[in-house]
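Progress against Task 2.4 (sequence-to-structure conversion) is shown through the following example record, which the project officer requested during the mid-term review.
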Amino acid sequence: MRPGARLQAAADVLADILGRHRPAATALADWGKGHRFAGSGDRAAIGTLVYDALRRKSSIAARMGTDDPRALILGAAARALGLSAEEVAGAADGSPHALAPLSHEEKAGLVAALPDGTPAHVAGDIPDWLMPSFERAFGARAAEEGAALAARAPIDLRVNTLKATRDKVLKALARFEPQPTRYSPVGVRIAAPEGPARSPHVDAEAAHGKGWFEVQDEGSQVAALLSGAAPRMQVLDLCAGAGGKTLALAAAMQNTGQIYAYDADKRQLRPIFERLKRAGARSVQVMEAGEAAALEALGPRFDVVLIDAPCSGSGTWRRKPDSKWRLKPANIPERQAEQARVLDLGAGLVKPGGRLVYVTCSVLPEENTDQVAAFLARHADFALEPYAPAWREGIGSEPPGSADGREDTLQLTPARHGTDGFFIALLCRGGATIGGNQT
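C-alpha coordinates generated for the chain above:
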Protein backbone atom coordinates (compact mmCIF):
# COMPACT_ATOMS: atom_id res chain seq x y z
CA MET A 1 0.00 0.00 0.00
CA ARG A 2 1.14 3.53 -0.76
CA PRO A 3 1.58 5.92 2.19
CA GLY A 4 -1.58 7.83 1.26
CA ALA A 5 -3.60 4.60 1.29
CA ARG A 6 -2.21 3.71 4.71
CA LEU A 7 -3.29 7.12 6.00
CA GLN A 8 -6.80 6.65 4.63
CA ALA A 9 -7.09 3.14 6.06
CA ALA A 10 -5.92 4.35 9.48
CA ALA A 11 -8.47 7.17 9.39
CA ASP A 12 -11.22 4.65 8.54
CA VAL A 13 -10.22 2.37 11.43
CA LEU A 14 -9.97 5.27 13.85
CA ALA A 15 -13.44 6.49 12.82
CA ASP A 16 -14.75 2.99 13.56
CA ILE A 17 -13.09 2.96 16.99
CA LEU A 18 -14.27 6.40 18.04
CA GLY A 19 -17.68 6.24 16.44
CA ARG A 20 -18.64 2.83 17.77
CA HIS A 21 -16.54 2.88 21.00
CA ARG A 22 -14.79 -0.30 19.92
CA PRO A 23 -11.52 -1.70 21.29
CA ALA A 24 -8.70 -0.76 18.95
CA ALA A 25 -7.36 -4.30 18.67
CA THR A 26 -10.77 -5.58 17.56
CA ALA A 27 -11.26 -2.83 14.98
CA LEU A 28 -7.79 -3.36 13.52
CA ALA A 29 -8.27 -7.14 13.37
CA ASP A 30 -11.59 -6.69 11.57
CA TRP A 31 -10.01 -4.30 9.09
CA GLY A 32 -7.28 -6.83 8.37
CA LYS A 33 -9.81 -9.59 7.74
CA GLY A 34 -11.65 -7.38 5.28
CA HIS A 35 -8.47 -6.30 3.46
CA ARG A 36 -6.51 -9.50 2.89
CA PHE A 37 -4.36 -7.79 0.25
CA ALA A 38 -2.66 -5.69 2.92
CA GLY A 39 0.74 -7.05 3.85
CA SER A 40 2.18 -7.33 7.34
CA GLY A 41 4.06 -4.06 6.88
CA ASP A 42 0.86 -2.29 5.89
CA ARG A 43 -1.03 -3.65 8.88
CA ALA A 44 1.78 -2.70 11.23
CA ALA A 45 1.96 0.86 9.87
CA ILE A 46 -1.80 1.31 10.11
CA GLY A 47 -1.82 -0.03 13.66
CA THR A 48 1.03 2.28 14.64
CA LEU A 49 -0.83 5.27 13.22
CA VAL A 50 -4.05 4.38 15.02
CA TYR A 51 -2.43 3.76 18.38
CA ASP A 52 -0.27 6.88 18.24
CA ALA A 53 -3.33 8.97 17.34
CA LEU A 54 -5.23 7.53 20.30
CA ARG A 55 -2.33 8.07 22.69
CA ARG A 56 -2.21 11.80 21.90
CA LYS A 57 -5.76 12.45 20.75
CA SER A 58 -6.32 15.63 22.77
CA SER A 59 -2.99 17.30 22.04
CA ILE A 60 -3.12 16.41 18.34
CA ALA A 61 -6.66 17.81 18.10
CA ALA A 62 -5.45 21.03 19.74
CA ARG A 63 -2.72 21.39 17.09
CA MET A 64 -4.92 20.43 14.16
CA GLY A 65 -7.94 22.46 15.27
CA THR A 66 -10.33 19.48 15.14
CA ASP A 67 -10.67 15.99 16.55
CA ASP A 68 -12.09 14.29 13.46
CA PRO A 69 -10.32 10.99 12.62
CA ARG A 70 -8.69 12.33 9.45
CA ALA A 71 -7.07 15.20 11.35
CA LEU A 72 -5.93 12.92 14.18
CA ILE A 73 -4.24 10.52 11.78
CA LEU A 74 -2.57 13.38 9.89
CA GLY A 75 -1.36 14.85 13.19
CA ALA A 76 0.09 11.51 14.29
CA ALA A 77 1.61 10.56 10.94
CA ALA A 78 4.92 12.42 11.05
CA ARG A 79 6.05 10.86 14.32
CA ALA A 80 4.39 7.49 13.73
CA LEU A 81 5.79 6.92 10.25
CA GLY A 82 9.00 8.93 10.48
CA LEU A 83 7.91 11.39 7.77
CA SER A 84 8.37 15.12 7.41
CA ALA A 85 5.31 17.38 7.29
CA GLU A 86 5.92 17.83 3.56
CA GLU A 87 5.99 14.06 3.05
CA VAL A 88 2.74 13.63 4.96
CA ALA A 89 1.09 16.31 2.83
CA GLY A 90 2.49 14.77 -0.33
CA ALA A 91 1.14 11.32 0.55
CA ALA A 92 -2.41 12.70 0.76
CA ASP A 93 -2.63 13.27 -2.98
CA GLY A 94 -6.20 12.22 -3.69
CA SER A 95 -5.15 9.19 -5.74
CA PRO A 96 -7.28 6.03 -5.53
CA HIS A 97 -7.59 4.80 -1.92
CA ALA A 98 -5.52 7.72 -0.59
CA LEU A 99 -6.55 10.66 1.55
CA ALA A 100 -7.76 13.76 -0.27
CA PRO A 101 -5.26 16.63 -0.46
CA LEU A 102 -4.73 18.66 2.69
CA SER A 103 -6.33 22.02 3.30
CA HIS A 104 -4.27 25.07 4.22
CA GLU A 105 -5.40 24.65 7.85
CA GLU A 106 -4.34 20.99 7.93
CA LYS A 107 -0.90 21.81 6.54
CA ALA A 108 -0.50 24.47 9.21
CA GLY A 109 -1.55 22.01 11.90
CA LEU A 110 1.18 19.55 10.91
CA VAL A 111 3.88 22.01 11.99
CA ALA A 112 2.00 23.85 14.74
CA ALA A 113 2.96 23.81 18.40
CA LEU A 114 0.33 23.60 21.11
CA PRO A 115 -1.36 26.98 21.48
CA ASP A 116 -0.46 29.18 24.43
CA GLY A 117 -2.74 28.55 27.37
CA THR A 118 -3.50 24.97 26.35
CA PRO A 119 -5.25 23.34 29.33
CA ALA A 120 -3.17 20.84 31.29
CA HIS A 121 -5.53 17.97 30.54
CA VAL A 122 -5.09 18.61 26.80
CA ALA A 123 -1.30 18.93 26.99
CA GLY A 124 -1.19 15.73 29.06
CA ASP A 125 -3.74 13.86 26.93
CA ILE A 126 -5.86 13.15 29.99
CA PRO A 127 -9.66 12.89 29.78
CA ASP A 128 -10.90 16.18 31.24
CA TRP A 129 -13.12 14.52 33.84
CA LEU A 130 -10.09 12.68 35.26
CA MET A 131 -7.93 15.78 35.64
CA PRO A 132 -8.96 16.37 39.30
CA SER A 133 -7.81 12.83 40.13
CA PHE A 134 -4.47 13.39 38.40
CA GLU A 135 -4.00 16.67 40.26
CA ARG A 136 -4.77 14.95 43.57
CA ALA A 137 -2.12 12.36 42.82
CA PHE A 138 0.58 14.47 41.18
CA GLY A 139 -0.18 18.13 41.81
CA ALA A 140 1.54 20.45 39.35
CA ARG A 141 3.13 17.46 37.60
CA ALA A 142 -0.23 16.06 36.44
CA ALA A 143 0.21 17.01 32.78
CA GLU A 144 3.77 15.63 32.76
CA GLU A 145 2.54 12.32 34.15
CA GLY A 146 -0.27 12.21 31.60
CA ALA A 147 2.10 12.91 28.72
CA ALA A 148 4.35 10.04 29.81
CA LEU A 149 1.31 7.77 29.79
CA ALA A 150 0.72 8.90 26.19
CA ALA A 151 4.14 7.71 24.97
CA ARG A 152 4.97 4.33 23.50
CA ALA A 153 5.92 1.61 25.97
CA PRO A 154 9.01 -0.61 25.89
CA ILE A 155 8.87 -4.40 26.02
CA ASP A 156 9.78 -5.59 29.50
CA LEU A 157 10.65 -9.21 30.19
CA ARG A 158 10.98 -11.07 33.47
CA VAL A 159 13.73 -13.67 33.48
CA ASN A 160 12.46 -17.00 34.77
CA THR A 161 15.16 -17.84 37.29
CA LEU A 162 13.90 -21.42 37.49
CA LYS A 163 15.42 -21.95 34.04
CA ALA A 164 17.71 -19.08 33.08
CA THR A 165 19.75 -16.09 34.20
CA ARG A 166 19.49 -12.50 33.08
CA ASP A 167 22.81 -12.75 31.25
CA LYS A 168 21.54 -15.79 29.39
CA VAL A 169 18.41 -13.97 28.24
CA LEU A 170 20.35 -10.84 27.29
CA LYS A 171 22.63 -12.96 25.12
CA ALA A 172 19.74 -14.88 23.52
CA LEU A 173 17.99 -11.63 22.52
CA ALA A 174 21.14 -9.62 21.74
CA ARG A 175 19.99 -8.62 18.24
CA PHE A 176 17.16 -6.60 19.85
CA GLU A 177 19.68 -4.65 21.98
CA PRO A 178 18.07 -5.46 25.34
CA GLN A 179 19.21 -3.82 28.56
CA PRO A 180 18.83 -4.74 32.24
CA THR A 181 15.88 -3.00 33.84
CA ARG A 182 16.51 -0.14 36.23
CA TYR A 183 14.91 -1.64 39.34
CA SER A 184 13.98 -5.30 38.91
CA PRO A 185 17.03 -7.57 39.29
CA VAL A 186 15.34 -10.13 37.03
CA GLY A 187 14.13 -7.73 34.34
CA VAL A 188 15.20 -7.11 30.74
CA ARG A 189 13.99 -4.19 28.63
CA ILE A 190 13.77 -3.74 24.86
CA ALA A 191 13.32 -0.05 24.10
CA ALA A 192 10.12 1.26 22.57
CA PRO A 193 10.35 1.56 18.78
CA GLU A 194 10.64 4.94 17.13
CA GLY A 195 8.84 6.06 13.99
CA PRO A 196 7.71 3.18 11.79
CA ALA A 197 9.91 0.59 13.51
CA ARG A 198 8.07 -2.34 15.04
CA SER A 199 8.53 -4.00 18.41
CA PRO A 200 9.95 -7.53 18.07
CA HIS A 201 7.60 -10.47 18.48
CA VAL A 202 9.48 -11.92 21.44
CA ASP A 203 6.88 -14.63 22.09
CA ALA A 204 8.10 -16.28 18.88
CA GLU A 205 11.67 -16.54 20.15
CA ALA A 206 13.09 -19.95 21.05
CA ALA A 207 14.12 -18.62 24.47
CA HIS A 208 10.48 -17.90 25.24
CA GLY A 209 9.42 -21.37 24.13
CA LYS A 210 12.05 -22.81 26.47
CA GLY A 211 10.54 -20.88 29.37
CA TRP A 212 13.48 -18.55 29.92
CA PHE A 213 11.40 -15.40 30.16
CA GLU A 214 7.89 -13.98 30.24
CA VAL A 215 6.66 -10.60 29.02
CA GLN A 216 5.93 -8.57 32.15
CA ASP A 217 6.20 -4.84 32.81
CA GLU A 218 8.89 -3.92 35.31
CA GLY A 219 6.27 -2.38 37.61
CA SER A 220 4.49 -5.72 37.81
CA GLN A 221 7.81 -7.42 38.55
CA VAL A 222 8.43 -4.94 41.38
CA ALA A 223 5.01 -5.71 42.87
CA ALA A 224 5.83 -9.42 43.04
CA LEU A 225 9.27 -8.74 44.53
CA LEU A 226 7.82 -6.47 47.23
CA SER A 227 5.29 -9.12 48.25
CA GLY A 228 7.82 -10.86 50.47
CA ALA A 229 7.08 -14.28 48.99
CA ALA A 230 9.98 -16.59 49.82
CA PRO A 231 10.80 -20.30 49.79
CA ARG A 232 8.51 -22.64 51.77
CA MET A 233 5.78 -20.04 52.27
CA GLN A 234 2.05 -20.43 51.69
CA VAL A 235 1.01 -17.81 49.14
CA LEU A 236 -2.27 -16.93 47.42
CA ASP A 237 -2.51 -15.01 44.13
CA LEU A 238 -6.13 -13.99 44.53
CA CYS A 239 -6.70 -12.27 41.17
CA ALA A 240 -4.29 -14.39 39.17
CA GLY A 241 -5.61 -13.63 35.68
CA ALA A 242 -3.33 -15.25 33.11
CA GLY A 243 -0.70 -15.92 35.78
CA GLY A 244 2.05 -13.36 35.27
CA LYS A 245 2.54 -12.64 38.95
CA THR A 246 1.92 -16.29 39.87
CA LEU A 247 4.92 -17.24 37.75
CA ALA A 248 7.02 -14.49 39.33
CA LEU A 249 6.08 -15.73 42.81
CA ALA A 250 6.94 -19.32 41.91
CA ALA A 251 10.42 -18.25 40.79
CA ALA A 252 10.94 -16.15 43.93
CA MET A 253 9.92 -19.15 46.04
CA GLN A 254 12.29 -21.44 44.11
CA ASN A 255 9.52 -23.95 43.45
CA THR A 256 9.06 -24.63 47.16
CA GLY A 257 6.14 -24.02 49.48
CA GLN A 258 2.71 -23.69 47.90
CA ILE A 259 1.05 -21.09 45.70
CA TYR A 260 -2.68 -21.08 45.14
CA ALA A 261 -3.80 -19.27 41.98
CA TYR A 262 -7.41 -18.10 41.85
CA ASP A 263 -9.48 -15.86 39.63
CA ALA A 264 -13.20 -15.25 39.41
CA ASP A 265 -13.11 -15.35 35.59
CA LYS A 266 -12.25 -18.71 34.05
CA ARG A 267 -11.49 -17.12 30.68
CA GLN A 268 -8.87 -14.90 32.27
CA LEU A 269 -7.36 -17.87 34.13
CA ARG A 270 -7.28 -20.34 31.23
CA PRO A 271 -3.82 -19.41 29.79
CA ILE A 272 -2.12 -20.07 33.13
CA PHE A 273 -1.80 -23.82 32.57
CA GLU A 274 0.41 -23.57 29.47
CA ARG A 275 2.48 -20.83 31.06
CA LEU A 276 3.10 -22.86 34.21
CA LYS A 277 4.22 -25.85 32.18
CA ARG A 278 6.57 -23.79 30.02
CA ALA A 279 8.08 -22.07 33.05
CA GLY A 280 8.60 -25.30 34.99
CA ALA A 281 6.62 -23.92 37.93
CA ARG A 282 5.64 -26.95 40.00
CA SER A 283 4.52 -25.38 43.27
CA VAL A 284 1.28 -23.86 41.97
CA GLN A 285 -2.20 -25.18 42.59
CA VAL A 286 -4.72 -23.60 40.23
CA MET A 287 -8.13 -23.39 41.88
CA GLU A 288 -11.42 -23.66 40.05
CA ALA A 289 -12.34 -20.22 38.76
CA GLY A 290 -15.24 -18.53 40.50
CA GLU A 291 -15.46 -21.06 43.34
CA ALA A 292 -15.30 -18.49 46.14
CA ALA A 293 -16.63 -20.94 48.73
CA ALA A 294 -13.67 -23.27 48.17
CA LEU A 295 -11.34 -20.30 48.48
CA GLU A 296 -12.87 -19.12 51.75
CA ALA A 297 -12.68 -22.66 53.11
CA LEU A 298 -8.89 -22.42 53.05
CA GLY A 299 -9.10 -20.00 55.97
CA PRO A 300 -6.40 -17.66 57.32
CA ARG A 301 -3.41 -19.79 56.38
CA PHE A 302 -1.40 -17.62 54.01
CA ASP A 303 1.87 -15.81 54.64
CA VAL A 304 1.17 -13.63 51.61
CA VAL A 305 -2.07 -12.84 49.81
CA LEU A 306 -1.43 -10.90 46.60
CA ILE A 307 -4.37 -8.97 45.15
CA ASP A 308 -3.84 -7.52 41.67
CA ALA A 309 -7.24 -5.89 41.81
CA PRO A 310 -9.61 -5.07 38.96
CA CYS A 311 -9.21 -1.39 38.17
CA SER A 312 -9.51 1.37 35.57
CA GLY A 313 -6.25 0.34 33.90
CA SER A 314 -5.17 4.00 33.83
CA GLY A 315 -1.58 2.94 34.46
CA THR A 316 -1.49 0.97 31.19
CA TRP A 317 -2.59 3.72 28.80
CA ARG A 318 0.73 3.52 26.95
CA ARG A 319 -0.19 0.00 25.86
CA LYS A 320 -3.98 0.37 25.64
CA PRO A 321 -4.62 4.00 24.68
CA ASP A 322 -8.15 3.34 23.46
CA SER A 323 -9.19 2.34 26.99
CA LYS A 324 -8.38 5.90 28.11
CA TRP A 325 -11.15 7.33 26.00
CA ARG A 326 -13.64 4.52 26.62
CA LEU A 327 -13.41 4.90 30.40
CA LYS A 328 -16.50 6.56 31.88
CA PRO A 329 -17.13 8.23 35.27
CA ALA A 330 -19.52 5.43 36.24
CA ASN A 331 -16.72 2.87 35.82
CA ILE A 332 -14.75 4.17 38.80
CA PRO A 333 -17.31 3.42 41.55
CA GLU A 334 -17.92 0.05 39.90
CA ARG A 335 -14.23 -0.80 40.16
CA GLN A 336 -14.08 0.55 43.71
CA ALA A 337 -16.87 -1.79 44.78
CA GLU A 338 -15.06 -4.76 43.22
CA GLN A 339 -11.80 -3.74 44.89
CA ALA A 340 -13.44 -3.50 48.32
CA ARG A 341 -15.01 -6.94 47.91
CA VAL A 342 -11.78 -8.64 46.91
CA LEU A 343 -9.83 -6.87 49.68
CA ASP A 344 -12.31 -8.07 52.29
CA LEU A 345 -12.13 -11.59 50.89
CA GLY A 346 -8.34 -11.57 50.94
CA ALA A 347 -8.17 -10.16 54.46
CA GLY A 348 -9.83 -13.27 55.86
CA LEU A 349 -7.19 -15.50 54.28
CA VAL A 350 -4.08 -13.80 55.72
CA LYS A 351 -2.67 -15.48 58.79
CA PRO A 352 -1.63 -13.39 61.83
CA GLY A 353 1.69 -11.77 60.98
CA GLY A 354 1.07 -12.27 57.27
CA ARG A 355 0.90 -9.69 54.53
CA LEU A 356 -1.87 -8.58 52.19
CA VAL A 357 -0.38 -6.98 49.08
CA TYR A 358 -2.79 -4.66 47.27
CA VAL A 359 -1.80 -3.84 43.69
CA THR A 360 -3.51 -1.94 40.88
CA CYS A 361 -2.38 -0.87 37.42
CA SER A 362 -3.94 2.52 38.14
CA VAL A 363 -2.75 6.02 38.99
CA LEU A 364 -6.09 7.21 40.40
CA PRO A 365 -6.24 7.90 44.16
CA GLU A 366 -9.85 6.70 44.25
CA GLU A 367 -8.64 3.18 43.46
CA ASN A 368 -5.41 3.38 45.40
CA THR A 369 -4.83 5.40 48.56
CA ASP A 370 -8.55 5.99 49.11
CA GLN A 371 -9.19 2.28 48.84
CA VAL A 372 -6.42 1.47 51.32
CA ALA A 373 -7.75 4.02 53.82
CA ALA A 374 -11.25 2.56 53.56
CA PHE A 375 -9.89 -0.97 54.04
CA LEU A 376 -7.97 0.01 57.17
CA ALA A 377 -11.09 1.65 58.58
CA ARG A 378 -12.93 -1.68 58.15
CA HIS A 379 -10.09 -3.92 59.37
CA ALA A 380 -8.53 -2.74 62.62
CA ASP A 381 -6.30 -5.84 62.74
CA PHE A 382 -4.35 -4.66 59.68
CA ALA A 383 -1.72 -1.93 59.49
CA LEU A 384 0.01 -0.26 56.57
CA GLU A 385 3.70 -1.11 56.24
CA PRO A 386 5.96 1.45 54.51
CA TYR A 387 7.31 0.07 51.26
CA ALA A 388 10.97 1.05 51.72
CA PRO A 389 12.05 -1.87 53.99
CA ALA A 390 10.31 -4.38 51.73
CA TRP A 391 12.05 -2.81 48.72
CA ARG A 392 15.48 -3.17 50.31
CA GLU A 393 14.75 -6.78 51.23
CA GLY A 394 13.06 -7.89 48.01
CA ILE A 395 14.99 -5.85 45.44
CA GLY A 396 18.24 -5.16 47.24
CA SER A 397 18.68 -1.49 46.43
CA GLU A 398 17.68 1.86 47.84
CA PRO A 399 14.03 2.53 47.03
CA PRO A 400 12.95 5.36 44.74
CA GLY A 401 10.42 7.94 45.84
CA SER A 402 6.78 7.39 45.13
CA ALA A 403 5.39 9.50 42.26
CA ASP A 404 2.68 10.87 44.54
CA GLY A 405 5.15 11.88 47.26
CA ARG A 406 3.94 9.37 49.86
CA GLU A 407 6.26 7.26 51.98
CA ASP A 408 3.88 4.49 53.00
CA THR A 409 2.48 3.33 49.65
CA LEU A 410 4.29 3.23 46.32
CA GLN A 411 3.01 4.76 43.08
CA LEU A 412 5.13 3.83 40.08
CA THR A 413 4.66 5.81 36.84
CA PRO A 414 6.26 6.10 33.39
CA ALA A 415 7.37 9.69 34.05
CA ARG A 416 9.06 8.99 37.37
CA HIS A 417 10.16 5.36 37.08
CA GLY A 418 9.88 4.30 33.44
CA THR A 419 7.36 1.58 34.31
CA ASP A 420 3.64 1.32 33.74
CA GLY A 421 1.53 3.01 36.39
CA PHE A 422 1.43 0.55 39.29
CA PHE A 423 0.25 1.16 42.84
CA ILE A 424 1.48 -1.11 45.65
CA ALA A 425 0.39 -1.18 49.31
CA LEU A 426 1.62 -3.65 51.93
CA LEU A 427 -0.97 -4.40 54.62
CA CYS A 428 0.16 -6.53 57.55
CA ARG A 429 -2.16 -8.46 59.85
CA GLY A 430 -1.18 -7.96 63.47
CA GLY A 431 2.04 -9.23 65.08
CA ALA A 432 5.34 -9.22 63.22
CA THR A 433 5.56 -8.54 59.51
CA ILE A 434 7.31 -10.84 57.08
CA GLY A 435 10.37 -8.62 57.21
CA GLY A 436 10.50 -8.85 60.99
CA ASN A 437 9.23 -5.33 61.75
CA GLN A 438 6.52 -4.82 64.34
CA THR A 439 3.17 -3.38 63.30
